[in-house]
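DM between two lab members

TW: hey, do you still have the UDP-N-acetylmuramoylalanine--D-glutamate ligase entry open?
JB: yeah, one sec
JB: this one, 459 aa:
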Amino acid sequence: MRLNKMSEKNNISKKLVILGAGESGVGAAYLAQQQGFDVFVSDMGTIAGKYKTQLQNWNIRFEEGQHTESEILNATEVVKSPGIPEEAAMVKKLRAQGTPVISEIEFAGRYTDAKMICITGSNGKTTTTALTYHILSKAGLNVGLAGNIGKSFAYQVATEQFDYYVLEISSFMLDDMYRFKADIAILLNITPDHLDRYDYKLENYVASKFRITQNQTAADYFIYCADDEETIKGMESRTFGAQQLPFSIINKIQPGAYLNQDDNIIIQTNQLQETFIMSINELALQGKHNIHNSMASGIVAKVLELRNSTIRESMGDFKNIEHRLEQLGKISGINFVNDSKATNVNSTWYALESTPKEIILIMGGVDKGNDYTMLNDLVKQKVKAIVCLGKDNQRIHDAFKGLVTEIVDTQSAQEAVYVAYHLAKKGDTVLLSPACASYDLFKSYEDRGDQFKKAVMDL
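TW: and the structure you got?
JB:
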């Protein structure tokens, strides 16, 4: 562990304020205290019990249900939770007076020399992050998993000594990252998402995603999807310091990864290395989008010069993460799938593309300005009925009226599962893939998925 351009003695006079006392904020508080900062944590909401207990045990000052301006505006630097928007009054005041506002990733990155493998994209980043971590772990590397997944990066930097980190990085995190550098950066895809945070301008969201490549040098790698239209368009107006390794299921690409005519993934990152070859039928993750995810992870493994046998074994035995196309089993011959993590339209498209017909689709929640038209063809081909799960389902009714015979409104996971079960018959699939955020009826997409699973088990 190292201190970046500052001694512990200097830190004692530096006041670090952390806005938001969730996983990332509390982890950042612990690391900051360890590094000798004067730390204060402030959360406008109610702090969850486990985080409050941690702060108390560590003797870190905190407040909840308010922001005390005299404390916060006096900070030398502020670490902001990714969930807090720029429009928040306190953030505006901090920006106006010139106080640096950074992300937990930016802060924690100062205190580790570990190699950073950073993964972003509108869809697939959690799966790709988990798969990459699985491959590296199986190869025996000393690796941590953090970012939008697992324990906070900052807490792990404070308590562990990893040589590598695989980090899932959201656009909200990227917005507050400045000097941090990814040794290996992966951009999976760009589709409209969270546009309410980007003035409803896709170009602003695209710019945020490309921050994954900032500060990279010729010693680093940028891995991207050559099949993704917005990524390619975004690259045209930008320059990159890193070595580029694209992947494609459409065109032959070398160096990089591609799909050959025999449905084999071919990966070659260096002419001196043995080429990696694996049939897509052997992949643990099935579906077109998961070929992309597997290619991206495979390129990382080849860049790190891992053995082909290890990569092949890891890609074949990987178990997908909870709430992402999670197979729950069958009841009365009806298959139930939990894809609660699908919080945007593109994720639901992937879920429908991967699921055999006939489908009873449970969707809905907080609509982020969704354009549902991209789902029309798949809904027509595969979906028998839609069960809406949300407080306001009008836009879903408007979007799919005439494409399916039945659209039913429900107000709880239990009600949605009950209705879907009675609309389905043997051989059908009940798929929870909401295309929307969860916080109208649920605490989070995890809570939504957990309640869905419980309702299925209660049938």
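TW: got it. Residues 1-9 have pLDDT under 50 and may be disordered. The first strand starts at residue 15 and ends at 19.
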